[in-house]
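Re: your question about HD domain-containing protein

S., sorry for the slow reply, the queue was backed up all week. Below is exactly what I fed in.
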Amino acid sequence: MSGPWGTDMPTTKTRVLLVHEPDTVPVDLARALGRDFAVTTRAWTSATTADLAAGMAVIVDVDLDGADRVARLKGLLAAKPDGPRLFAVDRNRRRARIQAGVLGATACVMRPPSIDELRGHLAAVWRRASITEDLGRGESPAEGPGARSILAADTALGDLFEACLGRGTVDQDQVRAASSQVTGAIQEIGLEPWLEAVRSHHGGTYQHCLLVTGIAVGFGTALGLGRLDLERLAMAGLTHDVGKAKIPVALLDKPGRLAEREFGLVKKHPEYGWDFLRRSDPTMDPAILDAVLHHHEYLDGSGYPHGLTGREIPDLTRIMTICDIYGALAERRAYKAPMQAPEILKILQSMAEAGKLERALVDAFATLSAGEAVARRPLRRRA
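Result:
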């Protein structure tokens, strides 16, 4: 089942308890959630522990002002230590967010709660649980470099997307730490096992961002780039599509060709992402900002958003453009299988012949891929 960011959720209908105000039954929200979950609605005044079940998700859309409300919710949730707990709070009510945290909130969403956002949070919780379960390879999840790095990257992406939606600021240290973990893990276990793990646990935009990040690190490692440059590539990969947080999910996951108006809206995502990162953290590396803004530019001026040509496009951005195209064609979606490396390379080479991509970089990518350095085998550390 595909969630709002293309993330995978349990294939069977998971139970959700929607706790609400006594005089406001969220019928529309319950109906929308009911497409994916088995939803039970209860007023906070009447909800009891009998309404709870193991693994159930709880969504609380209740004003947290008042000791009686908080005490009743605390008693209710104390009987259910597992599963997601999502709280809908007013944007400017800092106290409500604090109360939600005290009550064990997995995450807070702004009122009125969006179905896409709720599904995204729920999907993220189950996805991360499945990563820790499946990627440990017999080890503790904390000991597996692949699991640890994917969890770190997943968390960083989730926080980035939420912040871009206007609910926070970018934590550059978090993104940098995740980039370092991804770089180290790929060099240790190899790119292909890492990419396959991503495909197994992610879909849509999250999958794409992680694939591009891994491919960029793999390409850069095979080219002999130093650790700091590899981590810059990883940061660019993680942040390059953050602007898609502002694009309707229906467009991002649409299986067919986008209409001109729809594509015009999707084409705004580089500027959305660049503007968010630039305003959120003035210390952000200019090269990373350029990659976010211009990873859809082509050398012949046919790209977007600014129609740049030739030398106007820096090296890091040129690399990210190739990796972005490769990642988009290699990703697995509900409506398409991943394209195989030889087919993707033919497309990249034809784009280089047409003057859209730098031929030297594409040739290097093709040579490395043909030698299975990029897509198939573990990459060796370079001295």
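Confidence is low (pLDDT under 50) at residues 1-11, 135-143, 371-383. The domain at 135-370 is CATH 1.10.3210.10 (Hypothetical protein af1432).

Happy to talk it through on Thursday.
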